[in-house]
Write a structure and sequence with these properties.
- The protein is about 0% helix and about 55% strand.
- It is mainly beta.
- It has a 6-stranded antiparallel sheet with strand order 2-3-4-11-6-9, with no helix packed on it. A 5-stranded antiparallel sheet has the order 1-17-14-19-12, with no helix packed on it.
- Strand 15 (about 140-145) and strand 16 (about 145-150) form a beta hairpin.
- It is globular and about 45 Å long.
């Protein structure tokens, strides 16, 4: 098992058409976002332009949650509203226009990913999935098996559990939690 702890302030920002994005993790590490050759990508972006169009990606689906406000958008010509930290999912081929400013959490998964669970939660859990994501929405301690981490808002942990052993995670703050498998 490998634990990668990424603190928000260590992640470099780059420009996208509607603001800035911070890529926390791309898998595999040699993959490139622009080449669309990744299995999954964890990022955070600012939405500065109103309106702004979400980038389309064939073969992926996404989970998004606002980190600092509400989100008003149109998905395939249907108006929708999401509260702060409310997670929603959509196909990366959907036509999406945002009418809100702020920062978001973004998880992109290739459509071949299986057994995925992604949710906002604050209670402890255990899983034996090969990939486990923890994205802190508030400051707090996270214990992974017996190892403790002090996370700040918007810090991220990726656990790579190729042995598929049971991993116990204790949370005491609201966190975006995800776990999934990549077919071999």
């Amino acid at each position: 098992m490998h634990i990668e702890f990424i603190q928000k302030e260590t992640v470099t920002a780059s420009q996208w058409s509607g603001g800035q994005t911070r890529e926390y993790i791309i898998h595999p590490k040699a993959a490139r976002y622009g080449d669309r050759n990744f299995a999954f990508r964890i990022s955070s972006a600012t939405i500065e332009a109103i309106p702004s169009e979400f980038t389309k990606f064939e073969g992926y689906h996404r989970y998004l949650a606002m980190l600092d406000g509400k989100l008003d958008l149109t998905i395939n010509e249907v108006d929708q509203h999401y509260e702060n930290h409310e997670l929603f999912t959509f196909k990366s081929t959907d036509t999406i226009t945002s009418y809100s400013q702020g920062a978001d959490f973004n998880l992109m998964l290739q459509d071949t990913i299986v057994d995925e669970v992604v949710a906002v939660r604050h209670e402890s859990f255990q899983t034996n999935q090969p990939f486990i994501l923890l994205f802190a929405l508030a400051k707090g301690e996270v214990v992974i098996n017996t190892q403790s981490f002090e996370m700040q808002s918007w810090d991220c942990i990726l656990i790579t559990n190729e042995e598929e052993r049971t991993v116990k995670v204790e949370l005491n703050q609201q966190t975006i939690v995800g776990y999934w498998s990549i077919p071999k």
